[in-house]
């Protein structure tokens, strides 16, 4: 009977329950009352599904770094408010459809912090996508050429959190400017966006170009956003010194 039950669990894809029940059948395992056994099997199945969901979400996000909130370095010279980061870890900013802007010179850890917040969002069940901004623009231009642009735009719009890294490395041309405007417009007041850039937000107007569009984008993106302005020396240089 137990063999048949285990096989049925497999067929029903109750993998967590299957593993837990297999373990309880092994000699010398913990003895459970009926109520305890049912609770143990249900909890094991819930844990398994939760872990697989996080795995799916983090895989789909395609983060640049495997980054976690607990490993963020709060050295005094970095200008990071630990309380602020911990508030972001609750992901209330996603519930409130707020944006986060992370600025600072190269190597100070902008991408790591953005990825850590994104990974935390995945653990709470939010859909997240991470992109290098220039690569995203290239992808969207290709999508326009092959007819899949609307599908890609809709996919971006559905993400609870969109992370755009390395924004502002190149001045936007007309096509990229309109793509960027469409992405931000679609998400404004509905979804959250994190943008990481080496340039201070005051310089973004010039990077976007064409005053009317730049005004419209920055009005939706910047004015009510949370800010992290990182300082200090490059973390990559620091790591090299320590090795």
From TrEMBL:
Keywords: ATP-binding, Nucleotide-binding. InterPro entries: AAA+_ATPase, DNAC/IstB-like, IstB, IstB_ATP-bd, P-loop_NTPase. Gene3D superfamilies: P-loop containing nucleotide triphosphate hydrolases (3.40.50.300). GO terms for molecular function: ATP binding. Residues 96-234 form the AAA+ ATPase domain. It comes from the Bacteria. SMART domains: AAA. One of its GO terms (biological process) is DNA replication. The keyword Lyase does not apply. PANTHER family: ATP-BINDING PROTEIN RV3427C IN INSERTION SEQUENCE-RELATED (PTHR30050:SF4), CHROMOSOMAL REPLICATION INITIATOR PROTEIN DNAA (PTHR30050). Belongs to the IS21/IS1162 putative ATP-binding protein family. This is IS21-like element helper ATPase IstB. It comes from Snuella sedimenti. The lineage of its organism: Bacteria, Pseudomonadati, Bacteroidota, Flavobacteriia, Flavobacteriales.
């Amino acid at each position: 009977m137990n063999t048949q039950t285990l096989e049925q669990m497999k067929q029903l894809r109750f993998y967590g329950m299957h593993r837990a029940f297999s373990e309880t059948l092994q000699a010398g395992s913990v003895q459970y009352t009926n109520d305890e056994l049912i609770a143990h099997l249900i909890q094991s199945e819930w844990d398994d599904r939760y872990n697989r969901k996080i795995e799916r979400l983090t895989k789909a996000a395609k983060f640049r770094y495997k980054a976690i909130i607990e490993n963020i370095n709060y050295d005094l010279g970095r200008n990071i408010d630990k309380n602020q980061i911990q508030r972001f870890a609750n992901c209330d900013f996603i519930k409130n459809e707020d944006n986060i802007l992370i600025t600072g010179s190269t190597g100070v850890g902008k991408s790591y912090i953005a990825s850590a917040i994104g990974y935390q969002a995945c653990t709470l069940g939010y859909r997240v996508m991470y992109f290098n901004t220039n690569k995203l623009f290239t992808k969207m231009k290709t999508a326009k050429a092959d007819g899949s642009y609307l599908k890609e735009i809709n996919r971006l719009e559905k993400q609870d959190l969109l992370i755009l890294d390395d924004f502002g490395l190149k001045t936007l041309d007309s096509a990229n400017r309109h793509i960027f405007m469409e992405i931000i417009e679609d998400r404004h007041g509905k979804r959250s966006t994190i943008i990481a850039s080496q340039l201070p937000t005051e310089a973004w107007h010039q990077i976007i170009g064409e005053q009317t569009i730049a005004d419209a984008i920055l009005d939706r993106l910047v004015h009510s956003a949370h800010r992290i302005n990182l300082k200090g020396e490059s973390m990559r240089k620091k790591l090299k010194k320590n090795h």
